[in-house]
Amino acid sequence: MIVPVEASGGLLDYAFPAGFNVDYMPLATPQVTIGSLLGTDLTIRYITLDLEDLGDLDLFGWGLRHSLNQYLTFLPVDVAIGYYNQSFKIGDYMDASAVLISLQGSYSVPVITFYGGLGIESSNIDVQYTYSREGEVADETIKFEMEGANSLRFTIGLTLNLGPVKINGDYNIAKQNTLSAGIGIGINQK
Predict the structure, then answer these.
(1) Exposed site from 30, 44, 101, 115, fewest CB < 10 Å?
(2) pTM above the 0.90 mark?
């Protein structure tokens, strides 16, 4: 379904896909973190799905996190800085990317790790599709770019450390608030 939007003065109109009428869209993504080498972890996430009419959905992200505790040994909490980059594509229709630079902290007690962070982020999205209006000969290509409204993100969360199994959940406060959860397996962890 296409939703037409009339421009000011009624001179032009634009057509946008009507969407799926959902408030949220869950997506599970496999992720691997390798480290620590000299206090640095590497995280990689990737998923690809075939969406039939739309083409492939591809999500690829990577990030580096470096511990500051090796330099600041007096700190009572674990502190790290991080850089993360992610791309998200759907066929030839959408190409989005995001970057996050963050300062992260955590404090562990038996079985629970509390964590939080402050990040500076940027994102952009390019959308392009062809609109066919009934009764007209020529198709119209709709194309636009947008930059994300987020600039600062505050994260607070906790992890349950159940031996090698880790269950985490966090809440991100930004222009667009998000809730995330995960389950993982830690190998050779302290």
Answers:
(1) 30
(2) no
